[in-house]
Structures are given as C-alpha cells and as structure tokens.
Amino acid sequence: MKLCMIGTGYVGLVSGVCFSDLGNDVICVDKDLDKINNLKQCIIPIYEPGLEELVLKNFKNNRLKFTTNLKEAILKSDIIFICVGTPTKKNSSAADLTQVYDVAKEISRSIAKFKIIITKSTVPVTTGDEIEKIISKKISKKLFSVVSNPEFLREGEAIRDFIYPDRVVIGTSNKRSNKILKNLYSPLISKGAKYINTSRRAAELIKYASNAFLATKITFINELSNLCEKINVNIEDISIGMGLDKRIGSRFLRAGPAYGGSCFPKDTKAIVSTSDKFKTNLSVIKSVIKSNDNRSSLLLKRTFEILNNKIKNKKICFLGVTFKANTDDMRDSSSLSMIPSLHKKGAKINYFDPTGEKNDFKKLKNVTFSNNIKSAISNSDLIIIHTEWNDFKSINFNKLVKNKNYKIFDMRNIYSAKKMSEQKIKYFAIGS
Ligand code: UGA
C-alpha cells in the first residue's frame, strides 16, 4: 500500500519505517529540511534501538522515502497518517492542536481521489470530527475518511511494540476504511495482535485512558513505596504479591522516580482538560498528576536524609539522567529538577548517561559529564542510580569507587539490598 507519514518525530518515523519493513511504500514528510536531509543519509534524529538498521534497509530497497514536499506526498499516497506533535498549550493543560489542523487544511487542498486520513498523533476526543469538518469545506465526504488509530509505542521498545502490539485500535464507522486498514495491519494480526474496530471518538479516548491508567498504576505503587519506607516492608514484595493477581498484572508496577517522558505528563493533563471541557471530574487522574509533581521533592528529601543533610561539597554521581533507559529523551525527566536542586545546595554533581552529555546541565557550574561509569563514580560520596540501563546492573562498586564511605541510592531497585549489605555497601532503595 502507499502510505505517507506527516511528521517524522518519534511516532511518525518509527511507524513509517516499520510499515515500510512490512512491504508498504512509505513517504515520511517533515518541514524540517535538516532532519529530512539527515534521514536521507540514514542519520537518525533520535536514539531508538534497532531503528537505524531498519531505516538503512528500507531506504536502500526504495520502500522508504523522505521529503519536505507535503503536497506531493499526499497526492501519491492512499493512506495518510498525521503524526505531528500535540504538545501542551502554553498557559493551559489542553493539547495544542495547531499542527494537526494545519495539516488537515493542507490535506484538503491536495485530495483528488479517495484517501484515508488517520490521526496517529495523540489527539483529544472530537479532534477527528474537527478534521473532518475542515476537509469537508473543500472536498466531498465521499473522497475521504478520517480515522483514529492511536499508537502504543514505548520509547526504547518502539520497534518491538510496533511489530508485536497487544492490540490495533481503529476508530471508524467507514466500512471501506476498516477493510483497508485491517488488511494493512494483517501481518501484525496474524502474529497475535487483537484488532479492534470502534468509533472514532472511542479510539481517541482509548489512547488517553490507557496512558492515564498506566500513570495511575505507577503513581499508586510510588505512593505505597513511601509507606513501605516507614514500616520496614519492601515494595518489591508488594509489587510481586499484587502483580500475580491477573486482574492487576505485574507490568507498570515498579516504584521509582516520578514518571516522565513526552507522553504520561502531557496526556494526563490533556485528558483532565477534556473532562473539564465536558464538565465532568476526573478526580483520580487529577490526584495522580499532583502526586507525581510532588515525587521529585520527596526523593530529594530522602537524598538529603541519606547524606545527613550535609549537601555542600558532597560529590554526587547520577547514573543515567534520561526519563528512562534505552532513550536519549530528557523530556520531563526527574533529573531535570533533582540535579539543579542538589547543585543549588552546593553539591558537586557528576553524571554519566549512555546517550551522552545533555545540554540541560551545561550551564550549571558544578555539574559535569563523565563519559564512562568508572570515572563517573570513582570519587563519589553518593551514587544515585536514576535510570535502569542494563549498563548499570552489574557494577563492581567496591572495586571502582575510591571513597571508602560512599553510599548508593538506587531509585530503580536494580540491586539486592542483601547482597549490598554483604559487601558492606551503604545501600538505599525505593520503598524499603
Ligand atoms: C508511554 C506508554 O507506555 C506507551 O504505550 C505510549 O504509546 C507512549 O507513552 C505514548 O503515548 O507515546 P513512554 O512514555 O515511551 O510510553 O515510556 P514508558 O515505558 O511508558 O515509561 C513512562 C514513565 O513511567 C517513565 O518515566 C518510566 O520510568 C516510568 N515507569 C514505567 C515507572 O516508573 N514504573 C513502571 O513500572 C513503568
């Protein structure tokens, strides 16, 4: 099939590349000329395991193309995926849909035969209705169908999530579009993905509800971990004990720093904004947002306690600064508030991240980047394991750290407290 992905951010690029790998002809469009020129040389703008190889393979066999020419890409394609950003509006918690509606206007100027127009960007309920209105001002409704097909890709696991999704959600009442899309996704359905055809509005809401629920699950376990710390119970035991109940499930039940990234913080706010617009109260999600906003200060307080409130001139090393492992994404990472706060209190921060130095900390005088684990931790008073990269899972701390009295604060509960104590390491974890 002939597809075009409008927007080569995370969603558009990964989905476009994977669709081309499944045998489709895909044009990825972006207005950022540098990005497109780089992609034509297989230079990938994001860190995502496996993506570069797939771009290279499908670009070489000519199934994957990159362009800035939106009009031409639309004309050449039967299925158009809108994958542009829907960031939080300035001074509001609602999603900013400017880019989505701009694309809809451009599409309305470029349709000559039947096209399926799909929102893959995360868009609030009724956005599809709005897009349909915009396009139908210029084009007969017989010539297009607007469908919602949300994505459920996790950064760092995006290729696997694309190829082996739990479900494919298609929001449309148009039978022709449904048939075509079921065919498009048939290679994934035959591998076990459930195919769900529902209304467009329901599909739009499924995406927000899923992200808000996962954020709630994480926040629930994070709050319980605070209780565990007071009562000498290990949160890991609670997660295992709860997660084995199939109604609850063990995934997304790992306590840690505040959830971050480009999705949960933005989408929880946007769904609350939608519910406010329709005069309902999503009080649970409101509490989740508040609790998560407060989490970094709670973990900072714990860090101060671990250092007996003597922060000035303490050498603190962060292992990992991105919002989670296997990504270079810093958006809404808790390190963005924790490092400056510790720096302000006089700590000397050193950090290592497998994805390299971050611009976010370059202006802070006493925050430095080390390009390997050994040099990052060797002089530390406190090592904070902030992300759960495999690289951090079997470090021989006693061999590498010179300082005799160092402490470890493991915010991802990677290590066993028992083994750490056997090695006489002063080890602190989340929820124990
Ligand atoms: C999330 C969803 O998981 C995807 O299904 C969705 O498609 C995506 O948002 C999106 O809307 O585009 P992502 O933000 O890439 O994916 O990352 P997650 O793996 O979900 O992690 C989000 C945050 O939750 C991270 O800060 C992570 O460290 C934290 N987390 C996750 C926990 O603290 N505990 C857990 O058990 C799981």
What's this, in brief?
By secondary structure, the protein is of the alpha/beta class.
CATH class of the largest domain: Alpha Beta
Question: Could you tell me the mean pLDDT?
Answer: 97
Compute the CA-based radius of gyration.
24 Å
CATH fold description of the largest domain: Rossmann fold
Query: Based on the structure given, which CATH architecture of the largest domain is correct?
Result: 3-Layer(aba) Sandwich
Q: Which strands sit side by side, in order, in the main sheet? A: 3-2-1-4-5-6
Give the distinct bound molecules: uridine-5'-diphosphate-glucuronic acid
Q: What amount of the residues lies in strands? A: 5-15%
* Count of the domains: 2
Low-confidence stretches: none
Task: Outline the structure in words.
The chain has 432 residues and is an alpha/beta fold. It has two domains: 2-198, Rossmann fold, CATH 3.40.50.720; 233-432, 3-Layer(aba) Sandwich (Rossmann fold), CATH 3.40.50. Helices cover 42% and strands 15% of the residues. The protein has helices at residues 10-21, 33-40, 51-60, 70-76, 98-108, 127-136, 158-163, 175-184, 186-189, 200-231, 235-243, 264-277, 283-306, 335-344, 373-377, 397-400, 417-422; strands spanning 2-6, 25-29, 64-67, 79-82, 115-119, 144-148, 167-171, 194-198, 315-319, 348-352, 367-369, 382-385, 407-410, 426-429. The chain has a six-stranded parallel β-sheet, with helices on both faces. A six-stranded parallel β-sheet has the order 11-10-9-12-13-14. A two-stranded parallel ribbon has the order 7-8. Helix 5 packs parallel to helix 6 (127-136) and helix 10 runs parallel beside helix 13 (283-306). The longest helix has 32 residues, at 200-231. It is globular and about 75 Å long. Uridine-5'-diphosphate-glucuronic acid (UGA) binds next to helix 10.
